[in-house]
Amino acid sequence: LRKLSIRDFDIGRPLGKGKFGNVYLARERKLKVIVALKVLFKSQMEKEGVEHQLRREIEIQSHLRHPNILRFYNYFHDDTRVFLILEYAPRGEMYKELQRCGRFDDQRSATYMEELADALLYCHEKKVIHRDIKPENLLLGYRGELKIADFGWSVHFCPSAASGSGLSSQRLLILYHNRFPKLVSDGARDLISKLLRHSPAMRLPLRSVMEHPWVKANSRRVLPPVFCASN
């Protein structure tokens, strides 16, 4: 296979900036494919000692195939930088969309919940835990569909680690004991309450999130077409 280099891409506008580098809109010159090119500086990663995280991110994300997970296509590097070739999500971060809108209505929220639950269920079936789900790491595709991104903190799931009490249970309790805003519907309150149970064993499983009455009634998720192989 021909080795890729930065000369194979036309670099466009910046899409985002991170601690270790930047993300740019780019086009692969030969195939004319639009991608997001994540440029990471080796010196910065070595300084913070996170090279292993990058290797793990590449290894994990390159094997994931789901409509609600950002695709990882390939990577290459030069003397000073590492380049990750990623799927381009034209509608950007959910965080910025939420800031722009102020709040999401039930239809949009339920759609995102179904997409997120399905993608996380797929990850768990592949023995992968993301560990950093937040609006900044959820991107929006061409049709507004949710895409989980940034697998830098992800790990392969170890069954022996599943018996703990879960992460940040104190923060979950703080959230749970706060009053819900009046704008939150009864169905959404019910789902949130079941997700924020103190005991992990009592929390609603991901598959049940997708089957929750509020999600079923409000979600407008549209799955991408499936192309069958010709006989």
Q: How would you explain this protein's 3D organization?
A:
It is a single chain. The chain contains 8 helices and 10 strands. It is of the alpha+beta class. A 5-stranded antiparallel beta sheet has the order 1-2-3-5-4. Strand 8 and strand 9 (146-148) form a beta hairpin. The longest helix is centred in the middle third of the chain and has 20 residues, at 106-125. It is globular and about 55 Å long. The two termini are 30 Å apart. 22% of the residues are buried.
- Pick out the low-confidence regions: 226-231
Please report the number of helical segments. 8
Q: Main beta sheet: strand number and arrangement? A: 5 strands, antiparallel
> Helix proportion of residues, in percent?
25-40%
Instruction: Please state the oligomeric state of the protein chains shown.
Output: single chain
Q: What topology, given as strand order, has the largest sheet?
A: 1-2-3-5-4
Summed over residues and divided by their number, the pLDDT gives a mean of 88
Over the alpha carbons, how many angstroms does the gyration radius reach?
Answer: 19 Å
According to DSSP, the number of beta strands is: 10
Portion of residues in beta strands equals: 15-25%
Beginning-to-end CA distance, first to last residue: 30 Å
Which structural class do you get from the secondary structure elements?
Answer: alpha+beta
Query: What is the overall shape?
Result: globular
Order of SSEs, N→C? EEEHHEEEHHEEEEHHHH
Protein name: non-specific serine/threonine protein kinase
EC number: 2.7.11.1
InterPro entries: Aur-like, Kinase-like_dom_sf, Prot_kinase_dom, Protein_kinase_ATP_BS, Ser/Thr_kinase_AS
Enzyme class: transferase
